[in-house]
Design brief:
By secondary structure, the chain is α+β, with helices and mostly antiparallel strands. 13% of the residues lie in helices and 32% in strands. The chain contains three helices and twelve strands; from the N terminus they run ββββαββααββββββ. Strands 1-12-3-10-6-5 form a six-stranded antiparallel beta sheet. A four-stranded antiparallel beta sheet has the order 2-11-4-7, covered by helices on one side. A hairpin with a 5-residue loop joins β8 (145-147) and β9 (153-155). The chain is globular. The structure holds zinc ion (ZN). Zinc ion is lined by residues 40, 98-99, 116, 181, 183.
């Protein structure tokens, strides 16, 4: 990582959401501060808010559900929005939506549980934006999901250490919102949600 002073450091408290404006060419580090933590990321094109990062389009453009260093995330218009420059974890999910009240109500009988959808709305509101936040727009960074031979989607226990980082280069001026996922009823966050951090750097 560059020794240069970051442009911004945004601490994302456990079970909460925060956002940041990212200029084209700038670098965004997403860090699991204590490790074993998943972040749910949504992003919009600043110049055209009807263009946003889309996990489904990313799968289609890459013809893969896996992301690699050098690989890209795409928008609903199939334009690249981020390129992955560094990835300490190498495990992410592009196929399930972020957690939401209906997930906790349906599967755990707890409609009032903290959830990523609410956190992403919190992050949006803190930046004074009015984007429509949808769970299916979230990329589940560091989520150890895998698809088995017979098509089951299995969430493995998070394994990544404190300080695990993914670095994204923005390919357009965008806004990124991150939820430190509050899921504590599956192995997703090793049953203990913890903080995350975003660090914005110049190229
Ligand atoms: Zn979540």
């Amino acid at each position: 990582m560059s020794a240069e002073k970051p442009l911004a450091e945004i601490f994302v408290p456990a079970r909460q959401g925060r956002g940041v404006f990212v200029g084209r060419g700038q670098l965004l580090d997403i860090i699991a501060v204590e490790g074993k933590q998943v972040g749910d990321l949504v992003a919009w094109n600043r110049a055209a808010p009807d263009e946003y990062m889309s996990p489904a389009h990313t799968v289609s453009c890459n013809a893969s559900i896996r992301l690699k260093v050098g690989g890209r995330l795409f928008t609903n218009r199939r334009n690249p929005i981020f390129t992955i420059l560094r990835d300490d974890v190498g495990k992410h999910d592009l196929i399930v939506p972020c957690c939401d009240p209906a997930r906790f109500a349906r599967d755990f009988g707890d409609p009032h549980h903290d959830n990523c959808l609410a956190n992403l709305r919190q992050a949006r509101d803190l930046l004074g934006l009015d984007y429509d936040i949808r769970g299916d727009l979230a990329w589940n960074v560091f989520m150890h999901n895998r698809v088995t031979e017979d098509g089951a989607v299995v969430t493995d226990m998070a394994q990544h250490p404190a300080g695990a980082t993914i670095t994204l280069r923005a390919e357009m001026d965008c806004v990124a919102l991150l939820s430190a996922c509050p899921q504590d009823l599956t192995p997703c966050n090793a049953f203990k949600p913890t903080p995350m951090k975003m660090v914005l750097r110049s190229a």
